[in-house]
């Protein structure tokens, strides 16, 4: 096999000492995690790049397919290797250029000679390889500035290395390099996209879902599990906390006027989420809210909802149009799952005409007649936790009685 390793160029990287070390260490761990099925990978890190050693073609295929999903990688290139011998080098250059033979392309050879004992200097190597490759391909013409293909040749101490392709990475920062947040994950289109965007900024996620059986079906919960699992493709495991929310919703329906019940529902969700966030040591809460999308997402509503906590609420989609969100959902593969038609707990309790400009004092006044705190404590305590991608069934609460 001609491929010897994959060179990885780091994405956006704060250049300062410790942060940089952390970025590189995280990226290496995340790559190991994502490709755990391949066994132990040999990864060598340098200040500005990283190399994964390749054992065989099958491993190469898996890496090429998976690396574009990993945050923190700006681009990567398969690297071929051969003996430090001009004939072998010419032959390898031909083999690599063969993969471009059906396209009309501009081209140049760029040589770096790290091993100064090699008998030819960079310029001569460049001329010899270029002179060997060009006559064999009618489709190639030389262009020195910004060619379509730059065949990079590096004569190092152990071997000669070559690469011709720069494959774009996902950009962003390695998941985990920017702390942990709790994602409020509904079964809709928006929240998985919000989670993805925060992962891209290096945030590790746990997720929380509010579930109101029997008003919401088991299918709707399964859908949320599939979405949580899909998000793990981007390089980290996710714990999903499922909150039994029926009791709280029923109390809201009974005690709070229907035109502000949506606001109260959101406030209670946020209170529960904030307690779970504290227990799991997460620093912020992430939602899929987008300004003006629905009644609960006007500035007035967001203000009334937000008033229950000082915890930072991250809303990466706040300025996105629905179509832009759908675009990302399709790209990351969550759209098809999100549009499955299972009711989530809010659609069923949604009042006919929710207030778009709820007044905080009024909402607080209506809530003051009921003891929500006790119910919130209970909901947090009775939550079920699932881990993805490794599916772990929660302990069957009735098993002890059988
Ligand atoms: P989505 O498509 O993500 O469901 P949406 O447009 O349907 O969003 P809403 O239902 O108003 O919007 O919800 C706004 C946000 O509140 C969601 O993006 C999500 O972060 C959170 N949320 C709503 N319902 C739930 C739920 N059942 N469990 C957890 N979070 C929820
Ligand atoms: Mg929703």
UniProtKB/TrEMBL annotation:
GO terms for molecular function: ATP binding; CCA tRNA nucleotidyltransferase activity; tRNA binding; tRNA-uracil-4 sulfurtransferase activity. It is an enzyme of class 2 (transferase). It comes from the Bacteria. Gene3D superfamilies: 3.30.2130.30, HUPs (3.40.50.620). Catalyzes the ATP-dependent transfer of a sulfur to tRNA to produce 4-thiouridine in position 8 of tRNAs, which functions as a near-UV photosensor. Also catalyzes the transfer of sulfur to the sulfur carrier protein ThiS, forming ThiS-thiocarboxylate. This is a step in the synthesis of thiazole, in the thiamine biosynthesis pathway. The sulfur is donated as persulfide by IscS. PANTHER family: TRNA SULFURTRANSFERASE (PTHR43209:SF1). This is Probable tRNA sulfurtransferase. It comes from Lysinibacillus mangiferihumi. The gene is thiI.
């Amino acid at each position: 096999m001609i491929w010897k390793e994959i060179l990885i160029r780091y994405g956006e990287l704060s250049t300062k000492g410790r942060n940089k070390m952390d970025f590189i260490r995280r990226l290496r761990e995340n790559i190991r995690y994502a490709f755990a099925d391949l066994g132990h990978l040999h990864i060598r890190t340098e200040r500005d790049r990283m190399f994964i050693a390749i054992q065989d073609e099958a491993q190469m295929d898996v890496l090429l397919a998976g690396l574009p999903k990993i945050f923190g990688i700006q681009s990567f290139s398969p690297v071929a290797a051969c003996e430090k011998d001009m004939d072998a080098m010419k032959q390898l250059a031909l083999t690599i250029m063969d993969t471009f033979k059906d396209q009309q392309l501009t081209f140049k050879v760029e040589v770096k000679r790290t091993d100064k004992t090699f008998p030819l200097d960079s310029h001569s190597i460049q001329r010899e390889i270029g002179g060997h490759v060009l006559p064999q391909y009618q489709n190639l013409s030389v262009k020195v500035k910004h060619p379509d293909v730059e065949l990079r040749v590096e004569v190092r101490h152990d071997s000669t290395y070559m690469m011709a392709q720069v494959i774009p990475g996902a950009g962003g920062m390695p998941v985990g390099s920017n702390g942990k947040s709790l994602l409020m994950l509904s079964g809709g289109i928006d929240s998985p996209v919000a989670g993805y965007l925060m992962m891209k900024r290096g945030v590790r996620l746990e997720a929380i879902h509010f579930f109101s059986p029997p008003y919401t079906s088991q299918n709707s919960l399964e859908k949320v599990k599939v979405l949580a699992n899909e998000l793990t493709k981007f390089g980290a495991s996710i714990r999903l906390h499922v909150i039994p929310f029926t009791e709280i919703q029923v109390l809201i329906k009974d005690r709070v006027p229907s035109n502000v019940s949506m606001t109260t529902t959101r406030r209670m969700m946020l209170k529960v989420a904030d307690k779970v966030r504290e227990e799991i040591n997460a620093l912020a809460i992430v939602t899929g809210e987008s300004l003006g999308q629905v009644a609960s997402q006007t500035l007035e509503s967001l203000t009334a909802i937000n008033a229950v906590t000082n915890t930072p609420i991250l809303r990466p989609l706040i300025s996105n149009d629905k179509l832009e969100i759908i675009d990302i959902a399709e790209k990351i593969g969550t759209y098809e799952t999100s549009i499955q038609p299972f009711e989530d707990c809010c659609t069923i309790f949604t009042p006919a005409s929710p207030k778009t400009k709820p007044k905080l004092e009024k909402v607080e006044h209506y809530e003051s007649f009921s003891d929500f705190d006790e119910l919130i404590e209970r909901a947090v305590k009775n939550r079920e936790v699932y881990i993805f991608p490794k599916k772990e069934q929660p302990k069957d609460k009735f098993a002890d009685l059988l």
